[in-house]
Amino acid sequence: MTAVAALQIDELDTYINGLNADIDAVNNGIHYKYNNGLAEGSVNKIKLTKRIMYGRNSFQLLRAKLLLKETGNKF
C-alpha cells in the first residue's frame, strides 16, 4: 500500500484511505476462511423477489414464494 500511495494518483489514494480506515475487516478477510456470502446471497434474492412482486399480490404469496425459493423447491 505504501508503494501505491507513493504514486500519488487521486483514485488510488482514495482506495488506500478506504482500506486503511477499515484495516481490521481487511485483515479478517485475509486470515479467516469463512465469510457472510451465503447470507448476503439470500438477502439479495429476497430483495429482488420483492422488487419483482411489488404491488402485485399479498404478503402471504410473497412469503410462500420466498420460502419455496429458499428451500430449493423441495416440495
Automatic annotation (TrEMBL):
Start and end residues of each Transposase IS204/IS1001/IS1096/IS1165 DDE domain: 4-65
Name of the protein in question: Transposase
